[in-house]
Amino acid sequence: MGATKKVDKKLEENDYDPHEHRNVKIPTTNTETFIHFLKASIGTGVLAMPSAFSNAGYINGLILTAIIGSIALYCLHLVINSMYELCKRKRIPYLTYPEAMTVAFQEGPPVLRCFAKIATPFVDGFLAFYHFGICCVYVVFIAESIKQIVDEYLIVLDLRIHMCFVLIPLFLIFSIRQLKHLVPFSSFANVLMFVGFGVVLYYIFVQLPPISQREAFTKVTRLPLFFGTVLFSLEAVGVVIAIEQNMKTPKAYTGKFGILNRGMFIVLGLYMGLGFFGYWKYGEEAKGSVTLNIPQDEILAQVIKIFFAVTTLISYALQGYVTADIIWNHYLIKKTTEKSNLVLYELLVRAGIVLLTFLCAIAIPDLSLFLSLVGAFCLSILGLIFPALLELCCRYSTSYGKFKFHLFKDIFLVVFGIFGGVIGTYVSISEIVEAYN
Predict the structure, then answer these.
(1) What is the residue-wise DSSP string for 54-112?
(2) Contact 394, 85 (CB under 8 A)
């Protein structure tokens, strides 16, 4: 009798397809989703790849970028597939990443069920902090781009002074509370970014030095910085999940030749190519953004720096939206008793976020070190550890496969994420302390 009930329950789950019950007001087509994926995945992080390769060597860099990218892609599949499976079991159209973690812990091994109550705020916290870290990096990037132009044509000023000048534009762009109102700005930013990449590649390919002048491999002690930077540049777990949520045909997202795989193949190729040739061109002199390596005295180069600065300013509003949405809509709005001034309070929260990113950027204005710290600390958890735990718990009530393959694989990913995160964070903090002592 018990076996019959289990079979009936399994058939009931299989009859329910969450994709068919989603109610998306303005769904995106496959082509639009593909464009969104590339836009979300190819940001200013790609400009840091030559600096990342300087911490690994050109052979090491190519191999390890491919490995890290493949693992990151696999973990994205774990998250999306596990969320789909949990939605089938609960017979609901959609679960957010934090909600899926909570449900998974509730259904997972008994030793992990105690984490169910804190899963949602914990995942929310890491997502908010990660995007906050991105905004800090963007403040530094914008200020450094402007500084190079002002230093060349007007007056030499400290980088932190330029960060002060950037504050007002950041306040203005971040006061736009609805994503749909940012669409025209994002479209304009995409055009500028495309032109900018073309010009950067032009400068890279002019008079490449002999490859023998560059190291194929570097010291193992420098690899954690590489790990943090590449993970920061490649991973966009929150945005990738949000894109899938708004699709008209979400089944086209995760197939063997789906949007996720095809998009990541292009992204990975671009990141490896720019990292390899950028390091070949600039070697150990590669800076936290390759735009800081291109000539100071050429008008075209200066125009491109302005392009990237404007693009990053707009991207600041997009990335910061995640942090503001979590802090305000998930937590603070529930505690606000005076409902008549909600817009004012939200704007004050957003202004506070801008001010905090500014202060953090002032404290650590080294772009490459900041990239490594945020990537190693946040994304090792969001992009490696949590996806593995999500699948481990999701499969607990069904099967881990032959020889418990999925169990050991998930444990390996958790250990790999912990090791990479701890070592990468320690090295990044050590480098920051050494740089500012």
Answers:
(1) HTT-HHHHHHHHHHHHHHHHHHHHHHHHHHHHHHHHHT-S---HHHHHHHHHHHS-GGG
(2) yes
Backbone angles phi, psi at 96, to 5 degrees: -75, 170
Q: Which long-range contacts (CB under 8 A, 24 or more apart) does 433-436 make?
A: 435/366, 435/369, 436/364
DSSP 212: G
- Which DSSP string corresponds to 305-363? HHHHHHHHHHHHHHHHHHHHIIIIIIIIHHH---GGGHHHHHHHHHHHHHHHHHHHHHH
Q: What is the pLDDT of residues 369-389, one digit of tens each?
A: 666 677 677 778 888 899 999
Dihedral sign, Cα of residue 277, residue 281, residue 285, residue 287: negative
**CA 137/CA 174 separation, integer angstroms:** 16
Comparing C-alpha atoms, which of 363, 365, 383, 387 is closest to residue 424?
383
Composition of the chain by helix, strand, coil, percent to 5: 80, 0, 20
For position 187, which CATH number holds?
A: 1.20.1740.10
Task: Name the residue range of residue 157's domain.
Answer: 2-435
Q: What is the average pLDDT score of the chain?
A: 83
Q: What is the CA radius of gyration of the chain?
A: 22
Predicted TM-score (pTM) of the model is 0.80
- DSSP lists the bridge partners of residue 437 as none
Partners of residue 247 on adjacent β-strands = 28
Please say if the pLDDT value at position 307 is more than 80.
Answer: yes
**Count of C-beta atoms within a 10 Å radius of residue 146:** 19
pLDDT tens digit sequence for 163-190:
999 999 999 999 987 766 776 777 787 7
Place 236 in a pLDDT band, splitting at 50, 70 and 90: low
> What is the dihedral angle through the alpha carbons of 375, 379, 380, 385, rounded to the nearest 10 degrees?
180
Distance CA 132, CA 266 (A): 27
Q: Please state the domain count of the chain.
A: 1
SS3 state of residue 232: helix
> How far, rounded to the nearest angstrom, does the alpha carbon of residue 138 sit from its chain's CA centroid?
13
First to last CA, the chain: 71
Average pLDDT over residues 291-311: 84
With the C-alpha atoms ordered 213, 218, 223, 225, is the resulting torsion angle positive or negative? negative
Model confidence at 394, pLDDT cuts 50, 70, 90, reads: very high
